[in-house]
Amino acid sequence: MTRLRVCYHLAVPPGDVAALAASVLLEQSVEVPHPVATRHAFVRDHLLGTLESLEPDPDGGFRMWLALPTATALADPAQFLNVLFGNVSLHPSARLLDFELPPPCFEMLPGPRFGLDGLRRLTGVARRPFTCAALKPVGLSAPELAVLCRQFAEGGIDLIKDDHYLADHPFAPFEARVRACLEAVGDVHARTGHRAVYVPNLSGTPDQVMRQAVVARQAGVQVAMVAPMLIGLPALRELTRHHPDLPVMAHPSFAGSTRIAPPALLGKLFRLFGADAVIFASYGGRFGNTRTESVAVATCLRQPWGPLRPALPVLGGGMRVERVPELIAAFGPDVALLVGGDLLEAGETLIERTRIFTEAVAVA
Amino acid sequence: MTRLRVCYHLAVPPGDVAALAASVLLEQSVEVPHPVATRHAFVRDHLLGTLESLEPDPDGGFRMWLALPTATALADPAQFLNVLFGNVSLHPSARLLDFELPPPCFEMLPGPRFGLDGLRRLTGVARRPFTCAALKPVGLSAPELAVLCRQFAEGGIDLIKDDHYLADHPFAPFEARVRACLEAVGDVHARTGHRAVYVPNLSGTPDQVMRQAVVARQAGVQVAMVAPMLIGLPALRELTRHHPDLPVMAHPSFAGSTRIAPPALLGKLFRLFGADAVIFASYGGRFGNTRTESVAVATCLRQPWGPLRPALPVLGGGMRVERVPELIAAFGPDVALLVGGDLLEAGETLIERTRIFTEAVAVA
User: Fold this and answer.
1) Helix A350-363 to helix A142-154 angle, to the nearest 10 degrees?
2) pTM higher than 0.80, yes or no?
3) Chain-chain contact of B139 with A347 (C-beta, under 8 angstroms)
4) What residues of chain B lie within 8 A of the CB of A81, using their CB?
5) Which phi and psi (to 5°) does residue B244 adopt?
6) ipTM greater than 0.90, yes or no?
7) What digits encode the pLDDT tens for the residues B27-67?
8) Fewer CB atoms inside 10 A, N or C side of chain A?
9) ω into residue A234 within 30 of 0, thus cis?
10) Cβ contact B204–A35 (<8 Å)
11) Closest Cα to residue B297, out of B345, B227, B250?
């Protein structure tokens, strides 16, 4: 029988850890007292979990690996999350650190359809890091956003993404915004030969997201963005199934609200659920992440993992143009560098500032 | 202009709090440097937030109330979450404590369609607490689950809910399970006059959840359960819109993974997104919640709140029959008491043990 291996951190004193470990093991498998579970042969033989290891963590507390039944997890993508970190998330002392999957899981959750290589083919960015900029603030009209989009394209940006606050607002309706921004990148392409890819944000209930995806595809959008924790990870899975030819960039909004280690959530779960590119807050920005953790997220996105394609790490969260060489040294060339406010602050000289950014990446 | 008022806890030293407060204020409104935001008249006038108060928290750190623009939040239910706790969730020192909404928010998110009173009408449980039991463990076949369902119905349970691990598994397919359990409660009703309500769990991607809801309605299901954090809160909103005549019970799986205070998440957000009943781990059970926090969740679910109907608090997470009088004293009669493993442990005497439970509630 195949098992899902899951690693939790348990922040409890040594005297309490055995009881908590046993409790988590039941909670994440059958959620009944052990005598009740073992009453039924099928449950006893196929649906109980196993404690694989329980060791002190060098940084305090304990690290526990469980083997959990894939028979439960494979019912659907929500059940997969349920087995991974459902009720155990209600234990304030438990944190999801990591997980490892047997092959059947990849049939339900096949990961990126395009990933890093697909995005390189789509954009023509062969080996260097991608450059990425954000259309914001929310409140600009569709024509104003298109002006910004045109300037970024003229500055040589590869991926011009909507801010995650851009939705189907009355002051900048989704379809008008998408059409205006696509026209902007199209004009710059015709005039300069540089083909920027505009990445609109899809937002709303699952129906709204799917409708926006249809509108976007019909208008000619090649890559779309969603915030998987806002719309729900199963909705991301569904989007990738409904639109097999639309690469998806994932935004981390609401994702920090979890007690799941960022490499496990942004690096593994987002990739597993189909994100081709994943934006995350890098070290040295606004969010206080460590360099080790940032590099670990990028590593999880790109490393070999079963049949899954590597995904593109997108470094954001307050990156500045001056840090281009340092960031490339830290993360390597298989990344996108997302610079937001630092470009927008340039105001009248936005295009020049953007060129400094894209040229720094080109020569790095 | 109407504003969304949001309260965050900031766990930082006094010397750092002003900078973090200013940063969160921008992060949750326009996510660009202040000079960029104020360049645009519409943004400056309508989309910036305001710091309303910043005070030391008696338990350490600071409590900050912000007024944030509803113009952004009202685009769709995912944007609402984004404005409430999107990027700020990436600050490890920030936690969402509470929020208050202006009337326009209730048009997009009208809350429970049935709520406490609707569930009382539907079940005929007039004034006393509801009794609730769970069908588990996962791994039982549909006929085995139906046997359990029948026993709980014979024991007098009001609401017999699926365990949250029950999904559309090959060993207990959704439709077969639903039909068998409905037949079981129907038989007991015909024989004894006691009408238990069977509450199946809907799980999966949004499409799967909606399909299961259709199957359930056609089979005669009167109340369904979902885990909103597993399927995504916007999918819950959509379910309640697609099935206006199907009350929904919400399960907290994956909900503890957030850094959102349980009264704000389970008490306010779940209710706002349309849950008619909300299961949460009460104090004294398996999850170590405090009595104060548990009562606060119940209070948030039931208290007057704009045009929203009160929702039914469902106390779970390891409740035992012997605690019935104490729990009713603590929470009052407008609750459901969910007893799971404690009943199942009775084995051969399940019906008797269930009767002890339902009679204790009846006389309390």
Assistant:
1) 40
2) yes
3) no
4) 230, 254
5) -65, -15
6) no
7) 888 888 888 888 889 889 888 899 999 999 998 999 999 99
8) N
9) no
10) no
11) B250
